[in-house]
Design a protein that fits this description.
- Chains A, B: It comes from Pedobacter rhizosphaerae.
- Chains A, B: It holds the Pfam family Peptidase_S51.
- Chains A, B: This is Dipeptidase E.
- The structure is a homodimer.
- With about 230 residues, chain A is an alpha/beta fold.
- Chain A has one domain: Class I glutamine amidotransferase (GATase) domain (Rossmann fold, 3-Layer(aba) Sandwich).
- Helices cover about 25% and strands about 20% of the residues of chain A.
- Chain A has seven helices and eleven strands.
- In chain A, the strands form two sheets. Chain A has a seven-stranded mixed beta sheet.
- Chains A and B meet through helix 7 of A and helix 7 of B.
Protein backbone atom coordinates (compact mmCIF):
# COMPACT_ATOMS: atom_id res chain seq x y z
CA UNK A 1 0.00 0.00 0.00
CA UNK A 2 1.01 3.59 -0.65
CA UNK A 3 -0.94 5.94 1.59
CA UNK A 4 -0.89 9.15 3.61
CA UNK A 5 -3.39 9.77 6.39
CA UNK A 6 -3.02 13.39 7.48
CA UNK A 7 -4.33 15.06 10.60
CA UNK A 8 -5.51 18.10 8.68
CA UNK A 9 -5.60 19.45 5.12
CA UNK A 10 -4.52 22.92 6.17
CA UNK A 11 -2.17 24.28 8.81
CA UNK A 12 -3.08 27.43 10.72
CA UNK A 13 -2.15 30.39 8.52
CA UNK A 14 -1.25 28.12 5.58
CA UNK A 15 -2.90 27.22 2.29
CA UNK A 16 -4.80 24.06 1.43
CA UNK A 17 -2.43 21.02 1.40
CA UNK A 18 0.60 23.33 1.13
CA UNK A 19 2.59 21.73 3.96
CA UNK A 20 2.19 18.28 2.34
CA UNK A 21 3.24 19.30 -1.18
CA UNK A 22 6.60 17.53 -1.21
CA UNK A 23 5.13 14.33 0.26
CA UNK A 24 2.23 14.38 -2.18
CA UNK A 25 4.60 14.65 -5.14
CA UNK A 26 6.12 11.35 -3.93
CA UNK A 27 2.79 9.70 -3.07
CA UNK A 28 1.31 10.41 -6.49
CA UNK A 29 4.48 9.90 -8.56
CA UNK A 30 3.56 8.80 -12.09
CA UNK A 31 -0.14 9.59 -11.61
CA UNK A 32 -2.07 11.75 -14.15
CA UNK A 33 -5.40 11.92 -12.38
CA UNK A 34 -6.72 11.62 -8.84
CA UNK A 35 -10.29 10.62 -8.01
CA UNK A 36 -11.47 12.95 -5.25
CA UNK A 37 -14.08 11.81 -2.72
CA UNK A 38 -15.96 14.91 -1.50
CA UNK A 39 -18.74 13.20 0.50
CA UNK A 40 -17.59 14.30 3.98
CA UNK A 41 -18.57 17.90 3.38
CA UNK A 42 -22.12 18.56 4.57
CA UNK A 43 -22.58 22.24 3.95
CA UNK A 44 -21.08 25.53 3.00
CA UNK A 45 -19.37 24.06 -0.05
CA UNK A 46 -20.84 21.86 -2.76
CA UNK A 47 -19.20 18.67 -4.04
CA UNK A 48 -18.28 20.65 -7.16
CA UNK A 49 -16.68 23.55 -5.26
CA UNK A 50 -14.84 21.14 -2.96
CA UNK A 51 -13.46 19.25 -5.95
CA UNK A 52 -12.36 22.55 -7.52
CA UNK A 53 -10.38 23.34 -4.37
CA UNK A 54 -8.51 20.04 -4.65
CA UNK A 55 -8.07 20.56 -8.40
CA UNK A 56 -6.51 24.00 -7.81
CA UNK A 57 -3.90 22.52 -5.53
CA UNK A 58 -3.02 19.53 -7.69
CA UNK A 59 -2.65 21.76 -10.76
CA UNK A 60 0.68 22.73 -9.20
CA UNK A 61 1.76 19.09 -9.40
CA UNK A 62 0.33 18.78 -12.93
CA UNK A 63 -2.18 16.18 -11.77
CA UNK A 64 -5.83 16.36 -12.79
CA UNK A 65 -8.61 15.84 -10.22
CA UNK A 66 -12.10 14.44 -10.84
CA UNK A 67 -14.81 14.31 -8.20
CA UNK A 68 -16.34 10.87 -7.58
CA UNK A 69 -19.77 12.55 -7.49
CA UNK A 70 -19.40 13.25 -11.24
CA UNK A 71 -19.57 9.55 -12.15
CA UNK A 72 -22.88 7.76 -12.54
CA UNK A 73 -21.30 4.35 -11.86
CA UNK A 74 -19.13 5.19 -8.86
CA UNK A 75 -17.95 1.62 -8.26
CA UNK A 76 -16.61 1.46 -11.80
CA UNK A 77 -15.04 4.90 -11.33
CA UNK A 78 -13.14 3.57 -8.31
CA UNK A 79 -12.03 0.46 -10.17
CA UNK A 80 -10.89 2.59 -13.12
CA UNK A 81 -9.16 5.21 -10.93
CA UNK A 82 -5.40 5.64 -10.72
CA UNK A 83 -5.32 7.20 -7.24
CA UNK A 84 -7.59 8.62 -4.52
CA UNK A 85 -7.96 11.57 -2.20
CA UNK A 86 -10.71 11.81 0.44
CA UNK A 87 -11.19 15.29 1.83
CA UNK A 88 -12.17 16.23 5.36
CA UNK A 89 -15.53 17.20 6.82
CA UNK A 90 -17.88 15.07 8.87
CA UNK A 91 -16.84 11.43 9.30
CA UNK A 92 -20.39 10.23 10.07
CA UNK A 93 -21.64 11.71 6.79
CA UNK A 94 -18.66 10.34 4.85
CA UNK A 95 -19.05 6.82 6.24
CA UNK A 96 -22.83 6.82 5.71
CA UNK A 97 -22.43 8.05 2.12
CA UNK A 98 -19.83 5.41 1.29
CA UNK A 99 -21.94 2.66 2.94
CA UNK A 100 -25.18 3.65 1.20
CA UNK A 101 -23.46 3.64 -2.18
CA UNK A 102 -21.61 0.40 -1.25
CA UNK A 103 -18.27 2.02 -2.00
CA UNK A 104 -16.24 1.39 1.17
CA UNK A 105 -15.17 -2.16 0.28
CA UNK A 106 -14.33 -1.46 -3.36
CA UNK A 107 -12.30 1.58 -2.29
CA UNK A 108 -10.44 -0.50 0.31
CA UNK A 109 -9.68 -3.24 -2.24
CA UNK A 110 -8.35 -0.75 -4.76
CA UNK A 111 -6.10 0.92 -2.18
CA UNK A 112 -4.83 -2.47 -1.03
CA UNK A 113 -3.88 -3.18 -4.65
CA UNK A 114 -1.38 -0.32 -4.36
CA UNK A 115 -3.24 2.71 -5.73
CA UNK A 116 -2.08 5.84 -3.89
CA UNK A 117 -4.47 7.14 -1.22
CA UNK A 118 -4.48 10.45 0.61
CA UNK A 119 -6.89 11.10 3.46
CA UNK A 120 -7.25 14.31 5.42
CA UNK A 121 -9.09 14.43 8.74
CA UNK A 122 -12.38 12.53 8.08
CA UNK A 123 -10.67 10.98 5.05
CA UNK A 124 -7.94 9.73 7.42
CA UNK A 125 -10.41 8.39 9.98
CA UNK A 126 -11.81 5.97 7.40
CA UNK A 127 -8.32 4.52 6.98
CA UNK A 128 -8.42 3.29 10.59
CA UNK A 129 -10.09 0.18 11.99
CA UNK A 130 -13.24 2.10 12.83
CA UNK A 131 -14.49 5.67 13.25
CA UNK A 132 -15.02 5.45 17.01
CA UNK A 133 -12.25 7.98 17.70
CA UNK A 134 -13.48 10.75 15.41
CA UNK A 135 -14.01 14.22 16.88
CA UNK A 136 -17.02 14.82 14.66
CA UNK A 137 -20.60 15.37 15.65
CA UNK A 138 -22.91 12.38 14.89
CA UNK A 139 -25.18 14.39 12.57
CA UNK A 140 -26.29 11.25 10.68
CA UNK A 141 -26.52 7.57 11.65
CA UNK A 142 -24.22 5.22 9.68
CA UNK A 143 -24.95 1.50 9.23
CA UNK A 144 -21.86 0.71 11.27
CA UNK A 145 -18.73 2.45 12.56
CA UNK A 146 -16.35 0.03 10.77
CA UNK A 147 -13.85 1.55 8.37
CA UNK A 148 -11.25 0.37 5.83
CA UNK A 149 -8.52 -0.82 8.22
CA UNK A 150 -5.70 0.35 5.96
CA UNK A 151 -3.67 0.55 9.17
CA UNK A 152 -4.06 -1.74 12.22
CA UNK A 153 -5.14 1.00 14.63
CA UNK A 154 -7.45 3.99 14.97
CA UNK A 155 -6.65 7.65 14.41
CA UNK A 156 -7.61 10.79 16.22
CA UNK A 157 -6.98 13.59 13.71
CA UNK A 158 -6.59 17.20 14.90
CA UNK A 159 -5.31 15.80 18.20
CA UNK A 160 -5.35 18.63 20.71
CA UNK A 161 -3.62 18.89 24.08
CA UNK A 162 -5.67 19.95 27.11
CA UNK A 163 -5.83 23.73 27.51
CA UNK A 164 -5.07 24.56 31.16
CA UNK A 165 -6.59 28.04 30.73
CA UNK A 166 -9.99 26.79 29.65
CA UNK A 167 -12.65 27.27 32.34
CA UNK A 168 -14.85 24.62 30.80
CA UNK A 169 -16.07 21.30 32.05
CA UNK A 170 -16.26 19.38 28.75
CA UNK A 171 -13.99 16.35 28.37
CA UNK A 172 -10.46 16.82 27.02
CA UNK A 173 -9.40 14.88 23.96
CA UNK A 174 -7.22 12.66 26.15
CA UNK A 175 -10.15 11.85 28.45
CA UNK A 176 -12.29 10.92 25.45
CA UNK A 177 -9.66 8.56 24.04
CA UNK A 178 -9.12 6.99 27.46
CA UNK A 179 -12.89 6.39 27.60
CA UNK A 180 -12.66 4.73 24.18
CA UNK A 181 -9.98 2.39 25.54
CA UNK A 182 -12.28 1.24 28.37
CA UNK A 183 -14.63 -0.12 25.69
CA UNK A 184 -12.27 -1.14 22.87
CA UNK A 185 -9.00 -3.07 22.64
CA UNK A 186 -7.61 -0.85 19.88
CA UNK A 187 -4.53 1.37 19.70
CA UNK A 188 -5.21 5.05 18.95
CA UNK A 189 -2.78 7.43 17.27
CA UNK A 190 -3.36 11.00 18.46
CA UNK A 191 -2.26 12.86 15.36
CA UNK A 192 -1.51 16.53 15.98
CA UNK A 193 -1.98 19.01 13.13
CA UNK A 194 1.23 19.01 11.09
CA UNK A 195 1.59 15.22 11.29
CA UNK A 196 0.58 12.35 9.03
CA UNK A 197 0.78 8.59 8.86
CA UNK A 198 2.76 7.18 5.95
CA UNK A 199 2.26 3.62 4.81
CA UNK A 200 4.58 2.27 2.14
CA UNK A 201 4.02 -1.45 1.60
CA UNK A 202 4.27 -2.91 5.12
CA UNK A 203 6.16 0.01 6.66
CA UNK A 204 3.92 2.34 8.66
CA UNK A 205 5.48 5.44 10.22
CA UNK A 206 4.31 8.74 11.62
CA UNK A 207 5.78 11.83 9.97
CA UNK A 208 5.57 15.60 10.28
CA UNK A 209 6.67 18.42 12.52
CA UNK A 210 5.16 17.43 15.91
CA UNK A 211 5.39 14.67 18.45
CA UNK A 212 2.58 12.12 18.22
CA UNK A 213 0.64 10.84 21.24
CA UNK A 214 -0.08 7.11 21.32
CA UNK A 215 -2.83 5.54 23.42
CA UNK A 216 -2.83 1.81 24.07
CA UNK A 217 -4.99 -0.30 26.38
CA UNK A 218 -3.43 -0.92 29.77
CA UNK A 219 -0.52 1.52 29.57
CA UNK A 220 -0.07 5.26 29.99
CA UNK A 221 -0.19 7.37 26.80
CA UNK A 222 3.24 8.16 25.37
CA UNK A 223 4.83 10.40 22.75
CA UNK A 224 6.81 9.33 19.69
CA UNK A 225 9.00 11.40 17.37
CA UNK A 226 8.50 11.80 13.61
CA UNK A 227 9.82 8.75 11.76
CA UNK A 228 8.69 6.27 14.41
CA UNK A 229 7.27 2.96 13.16
CA UNK A 230 3.68 2.47 14.25
CA UNK A 231 3.43 -1.29 13.79
CA UNK B 1 -43.59 16.97 33.16
CA UNK B 2 -41.20 18.27 35.74
CA UNK B 3 -37.65 18.24 34.41
CA UNK B 4 -34.28 19.97 34.38
CA UNK B 5 -31.78 19.36 31.60
CA UNK B 6 -28.51 20.99 32.63
CA UNK B 7 -25.49 21.79 30.47
CA UNK B 8 -23.08 20.52 33.12
CA UNK B 9 -23.11 19.02 36.60
CA UNK B 10 -20.26 21.20 37.82
CA UNK B 11 -19.21 24.76 37.14
CA UNK B 12 -15.52 25.62 36.83
CA UNK B 13 -14.14 25.96 40.35
CA UNK B 14 -17.42 24.81 41.93
CA UNK B 15 -18.60 21.60 43.59
CA UNK B 16 -20.78 18.89 42.08
CA UNK B 17 -24.34 20.22 41.42
CA UNK B 18 -23.74 23.14 43.80
CA UNK B 19 -24.96 25.85 41.41
CA UNK B 20 -28.25 23.96 40.89
CA UNK B 21 -29.02 23.36 44.58
CA UNK B 22 -31.92 25.80 44.88
CA UNK B 23 -33.52 24.56 41.65
CA UNK B 24 -33.11 20.93 42.65
CA UNK B 25 -34.85 21.55 45.97
CA UNK B 26 -37.85 22.71 43.92
CA UNK B 27 -37.59 19.96 41.28
CA UNK B 28 -37.52 17.20 43.88
CA UNK B 29 -39.96 18.74 46.38
CA UNK B 30 -41.70 15.98 48.37
CA UNK B 31 -39.32 13.28 47.10
CA UNK B 32 -37.55 10.88 49.54
CA UNK B 33 -35.44 8.98 47.08
CA UNK B 34 -33.96 9.52 43.63
CA UNK B 35 -33.05 6.69 41.27
CA UNK B 36 -29.67 7.57 39.79
CA UNK B 37 -28.71 6.33 36.31
CA UNK B 38 -24.89 6.03 36.20
CA UNK B 39 -24.50 4.29 32.82
CA UNK B 40 -22.88 7.18 30.94
CA UNK B 41 -19.63 6.87 32.85
CA UNK B 42 -17.21 4.59 31.01
CA UNK B 43 -14.13 4.72 33.12
CA UNK B 44 -12.28 6.26 35.99
CA UNK B 45 -15.24 5.87 38.30
CA UNK B 46 -17.41 2.81 38.92
CA UNK B 47 -21.21 2.88 38.97
CA UNK B 48 -20.97 2.57 42.76
CA UNK B 49 -18.55 5.47 43.19
CA UNK B 50 -20.56 7.62 40.78
CA UNK B 51 -23.75 6.92 42.74
CA UNK B 52 -21.93 7.80 46.00
CA UNK B 53 -21.02 11.17 44.51
CA UNK B 54 -24.68 11.91 43.75
CA UNK B 55 -25.69 10.57 47.18
CA UNK B 56 -23.23 12.92 48.91
CA UNK B 57 -24.79 15.92 47.23
CA UNK B 58 -28.42 14.94 47.82
CA UNK B 59 -27.72 14.25 51.49
CA UNK B 60 -27.75 18.02 51.85
CA UNK B 61 -31.34 18.05 50.59
CA UNK B 62 -32.21 15.05 52.80
CA UNK B 63 -32.97 12.93 49.76
CA UNK B 64 -31.66 9.39 49.41
CA UNK B 65 -30.08 8.18 46.16
CA UNK B 66 -30.01 4.64 44.80
CA UNK B 67 -28.12 3.59 41.70
CA UNK B 68 -30.19 1.85 39.01
CA UNK B 69 -27.32 -0.63 38.58
CA UNK B 70 -28.15 -1.99 42.07
CA UNK B 71 -31.50 -3.40 40.93
CA UNK B 72 -31.76 -6.78 39.25
CA UNK B 73 -35.08 -5.85 37.58
CA UNK B 74 -34.27 -2.39 36.31
CA UNK B 75 -37.57 -1.88 34.49
CA UNK B 76 -39.46 -2.50 37.72
CA UNK B 77 -37.06 -0.20 39.56
CA UNK B 78 -37.92 2.60 37.11
CA UNK B 79 -41.65 1.94 37.47
CA UNK B 80 -41.30 1.92 41.28
CA UNK B 81 -39.08 5.04 41.37
CA UNK B 82 -40.20 8.42 42.69
CA UNK B 83 -37.75 10.50 40.66
CA UNK B 84 -34.69 10.24 38.41
CA UNK B 85 -31.25 11.71 37.83
CA UNK B 86 -29.03 10.73 34.91
CA UNK B 87 -25.41 11.75 35.34
CA UNK B 88 -23.03 12.87 32.61
CA UNK B 89 -20.33 10.95 30.78
CA UNK B 90 -20.45 9.50 27.29
CA UNK B 91 -23.82 9.79 25.51
CA UNK B 92 -23.12 6.90 23.12
CA UNK B 93 -22.45 4.59 26.05
CA UNK B 94 -25.49 5.84 27.95
CA UNK B 95 -27.85 5.41 24.99
CA UNK B 96 -26.44 1.98 24.13
CA UNK B 97 -26.78 0.82 27.76
CA UNK B 98 -30.38 2.03 28.01
CA UNK B 99 -31.26 0.46 24.64
CA UNK B 100 -29.67 -2.90 25.43
CA UNK B 101 -31.53 -3.11 28.71
CA UNK B 102 -34.73 -1.81 27.02
CA UNK B 103 -34.99 1.01 29.55
CA UNK B 104 -35.30 4.13 27.37
CA UNK B 105 -39.04 3.81 26.71
CA UNK B 106 -40.01 2.90 30.27
CA UNK B 107 -37.94 5.80 31.58
CA UNK B 108 -39.59 8.19 29.11
CA UNK B 109 -43.07 6.99 30.07
CA UNK B 110 -42.37 7.43 33.78
CA UNK B 111 -41.02 10.95 33.28
CA UNK B 112 -44.03 11.83 31.12
CA UNK B 113 -46.23 10.73 34.01
CA UNK B 114 -44.75 13.60 36.01
CA UNK B 115 -41.90 12.03 37.97
CA UNK B 116 -39.10 14.60 38.41
CA UNK B 117 -36.11 14.16 36.08
CA UNK B 118 -32.70 15.77 36.22
CA UNK B 119 -30.20 15.26 33.43
CA UNK B 120 -26.68 16.63 33.30
CA UNK B 121 -24.69 16.73 30.06
CA UNK B 122 -25.16 13.21 28.55
CA UNK B 123 -28.20 12.84 30.81
CA UNK B 124 -29.58 16.02 29.21
CA UNK B 125 -28.82 14.88 25.67
CA UNK B 126 -31.15 11.91 26.09
CA UNK B 127 -33.98 14.33 26.91
CA UNK B 128 -33.76 15.75 23.37
CA UNK B 129 -35.22 14.33 20.16
CA UNK B 130 -32.01 12.50 19.34
CA UNK B 131 -28.34 12.43 20.33
CA UNK B 132 -27.03 13.77 17.02
CA UNK B 133 -25.80 17.02 18.63
CA UNK B 134 -23.73 15.45 21.41
CA UNK B 135 -20.08 16.49 21.74
CA UNK B 136 -19.07 13.00 22.80
CA UNK B 137 -16.80 10.56 21.05
CA UNK B 138 -18.62 7.59 19.43
CA UNK B 139 -16.77 4.98 21.51
CA UNK B 140 -19.59 2.42 21.14
CA UNK B 141 -22.30 1.91 18.47
CA UNK B 142 -25.88 2.37 19.69
CA UNK B 143 -28.88 0.71 17.99
CA UNK B 144 -30.12 4.15 17.01
CA UNK B 145 -29.53 7.81 17.88
CA UNK B 146 -33.16 8.40 18.96
CA UNK B 147 -33.72 9.69 22.48
CA UNK B 148 -36.66 10.38 24.81
CA UNK B 149 -38.00 13.59 23.22
CA UNK B 150 -38.92 15.12 26.58
CA UNK B 151 -38.52 18.45 24.78
CA UNK B 152 -39.28 19.11 21.08
CA UNK B 153 -35.69 19.98 20.11
CA UNK B 154 -32.08 18.85 20.51
CA UNK B 155 -29.52 20.05 23.02
CA UNK B 156 -25.86 20.82 22.76
CA UNK B 157 -24.59 20.73 26.37
CA UNK B 158 -21.30 22.45 27.31
CA UNK B 159 -21.90 24.82 24.38
CA UNK B 160 -18.65 26.64 23.74
CA UNK B 161 -18.00 29.80 21.74
CA UNK B 162 -15.24 29.81 19.13
CA UNK B 163 -11.83 30.68 20.59
CA UNK B 164 -10.20 33.28 18.30
CA UNK B 165 -6.78 32.55 19.83
CA UNK B 166 -6.80 28.87 18.94
CA UNK B 167 -4.39 28.04 16.11
CA UNK B 168 -6.22 24.85 15.31
CA UNK B 169 -8.12 23.69 12.27
CA UNK B 170 -10.79 21.50 13.95
CA UNK B 171 -14.41 22.59 13.53
CA UNK B 172 -15.93 25.01 16.04
CA UNK B 173 -19.05 23.99 17.92
CA UNK B 174 -21.10 26.39 15.82
CA UNK B 175 -19.78 24.87 12.58
CA UNK B 176 -20.70 21.40 13.83
CA UNK B 177 -24.26 22.41 14.68
CA UNK B 178 -24.65 24.19 11.33
CA UNK B 179 -23.54 20.95 9.67
CA UNK B 180 -26.19 19.11 11.70
CA UNK B 181 -28.82 21.52 10.35
CA UNK B 182 -27.88 20.70 6.75
CA UNK B 183 -28.98 17.10 7.44
CA UNK B 184 -31.77 17.51 10.03
CA UNK B 185 -34.83 19.73 10.37
CA UNK B 186 -34.47 20.04 14.16
CA UNK B 187 -33.92 23.04 16.42
CA UNK B 188 -30.78 22.92 18.59
CA UNK B 189 -30.34 24.66 21.92
CA UNK B 190 -26.67 25.54 22.49
CA UNK B 191 -26.61 25.37 26.28
CA UNK B 192 -23.60 27.11 27.83
CA UNK B 193 -22.28 25.88 31.17
CA UNK B 194 -24.30 27.57 33.89
CA UNK B 195 -27.58 27.15 32.00
CA UNK B 196 -30.35 24.55 32.08
CA UNK B 197 -33.67 23.83 30.44
CA UNK B 198 -36.66 23.76 32.78
CA UNK B 199 -39.84 22.01 31.78
CA UNK B 200 -42.86 22.36 34.08
CA UNK B 201 -45.94 20.80 32.50
CA UNK B 202 -46.09 22.41 29.05
CA UNK B 203 -43.89 25.40 29.88
CA UNK B 204 -40.32 25.00 28.64
CA UNK B 205 -37.82 27.76 29.43
CA UNK B 206 -34.07 28.18 29.51
CA UNK B 207 -32.63 29.30 32.84
CA UNK B 208 -29.25 30.09 34.35
CA UNK B 209 -26.58 32.73 34.29
CA UNK B 210 -25.65 32.90 30.60
CA UNK B 211 -27.22 33.73 27.26
CA UNK B 212 -28.28 30.68 25.26
CA UNK B 213 -27.54 30.23 21.55
CA UNK B 214 -30.37 28.85 19.41
CA UNK B 215 -29.84 27.20 16.03
CA UNK B 216 -32.78 26.70 13.69
CA UNK B 217 -32.89 25.55 10.07
CA UNK B 218 -32.92 28.39 7.57
CA UNK B 219 -32.13 31.29 9.90
CA UNK B 220 -29.01 32.69 11.54
CA UNK B 221 -28.26 31.50 15.09
CA UNK B 222 -29.50 33.87 17.79
CA UNK B 223 -29.14 34.42 21.53
CA UNK B 224 -31.90 34.36 24.14
CA UNK B 225 -31.85 35.53 27.77
CA UNK B 226 -32.57 33.37 30.82
CA UNK B 227 -36.32 32.90 31.28
CA UNK B 228 -37.05 32.70 27.53
CA UNK B 229 -39.68 30.17 26.46
CA UNK B 230 -38.23 27.54 24.14
CA UNK B 231 -41.47 26.29 22.57
Amino acid sequence: MNIILASTSTLFGGNYLEYLKEELAKLYQGIDEITFIPFARPGGISHEAYTEKAKDFFNQLKINVRGLHEFEDKKKAIIDAQAFFTGGGNTFLLVKSLQEQELMTVLKTNIEQGKPYLGCSAGSNIGGLNMKTTNDMPIVYPQSFDCMALVPFNLNPHYLDPNPDLKHNGETRETRIREFLTQNNVKVVGLREGNWIRRWNDLITVEGSELTRIFEPGIEPYEVVPGTRLS
